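Example record used in the benchmark description.
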Amino acid sequence: MPEEILNGNKTILVVDDEPDIRLVLQARLEAAGYNVETAATGLEALNRIRTQPPDLVILDLMLPGMDGFAVCALLKRDQRFSRIPIIILTARSQTQDRKTGTDLGADAYLTKPFQSKDLLEKISQLLTIRANAEKEDASSGK
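Model output (structure tokens):
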């Protein structure tokens, strides 16, 4: 089955304050068949997620106002949104930043510059894990 058919109903929210990064990610993800929404700030991302939760979030750490760590923590602490996979995609490559992201519940941590192939593989992996967990919940009556 072509990748576009598999991905066509999945929405990814890209959160990055750099317009060029948002555009590049949006173009690459749409080419892979995903629906893409974008946000330039942490607050804008939270508002979008609260009104229309995406299937996955790609989140930069260095955002104006509320940083990506705060967005990740708020989403993972909220039962309505805690299962949305979050990929932190950032230029911050220090071990402590990676540990903080993981401790706050991020599902993956990738650094810029990144390979599109690696990002798409991680997205596919996380969406599959989420779909399997939802199927398991449905069959067990959760």
